[in-house]
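Workshop exercise sheet. Pairs work together: one partner reads the sequence aloud, the other fills in the structure field after running the prediction. Swap roles for the next sheet.
Pair: D.N. / O.F.
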Amino acid sequence: MKRTWTVATAGIAMTALLAGCGGGPAADGGKISDDKITLGVLTDLSGVYADLAGPNAVAAVEMAVADFKKKHGDKAVTGDIEVVSADHQNKPEIANTQAREMYDRKKADAIFDVPTSSAALAVATIAEQSKQLYFNIGAATTELSGKSCNKYTYAWAYDSYMLANGTGTNVTRKGGENWYLLYPDYAFGQDMQAKFSTAITGAGGKVLAKDPTPFPSDNYSTFLLKAPTLKPKPDVIGVLQAGGDLVNVVKQYKQFKLKEKGIKLAIGLMFDTDIKSIGAKNLAGTTFTSAWFWNLDDKSRAWADRFKAKTGDRPTFDHAANYSAATQYLEAVQRAGTDKSEAVTEELDGMKFDDPFARNAEVRAADHRLAHDAYLVKVKDPAEATEPDDFTELVETIPAAEAFDEPSAECRMN
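Structure field:
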């Protein structure tokens, strides 16, 4: 069954329900475990993904909690909502331990974020074992809605299919026929390499070579100096690193003057924080695919202004998606009147909505992938920017139905 909810209609419906019951769902006791809701943010607080996710991912979830309390007031399912956080250091074994601690000792009802695909896959396993919810925001692996899917895990923001379908296809069709792919040697990079190779060949291009690189790393010279020696010479280097690693690759690409040697740069995944680190002048005109950007429209801009007032920074799409997932989770709890995972998933599955992050969004019941519009964008020339953090310009909206792959036959919901 499909549900379409907006903030207004959900609020009206809930207000009417609560008025008839004579109080919030917690009033009759026992419907909220431990009499409070705990949201866990498991993220990279100190490493290569700390800027694009990190402390500001925690801040985004805190914003969702504050907005939920303000909206529902004393009619909220509970007024006691706590946000806890931990640093997984981009290591699956640490993510595993931290997730268990969040669910078991800190009594987290849901975990959010988890950049790094290997860490995200570990958390999905713990979520299934604990029968508690996990909203993947920061990891791109399609396995979370494929062979590693489960009824407690939702893939919310983006995935490698979305990135490859946008960038790989577009760049190839515009003349980038021959590619050399560099990818980090772990689950995210391996998945990106596979999806980009498929998109490139599907658009009529060729992958001349593809090399795994250490993760994390600050030296990509061996791989970049190899590019001009390939026969034929590649038209494009596809850089599939992210965060601090991406910054290092691009800076060294510039250092070795590969653009002047006729080798273009294509970036698989980029956040505004990366553009800031590399310099918009160095990336002006670069096309890439994004799940969201802060000045997409008035709704996004208004939320981004509030986020900046709280944090001092403009949000990345990771931050916006954390806000979205936490908001939609809390609203689902409000409608269900309980934080029991099975009841909350019944509210989420098939739900359609629009919020500051997601447009034309639907939570697919078949694989728990949030399908939503994605965006082919390019880096603005700094001369065209309206403020120092205005980096991104819309090229084309990719409709939700095209942005994400069909549900995988490998996904088996228990």
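Discussion prompt: Confidence is low (pLDDT under 50) at residues 1-29. What would you look at next?
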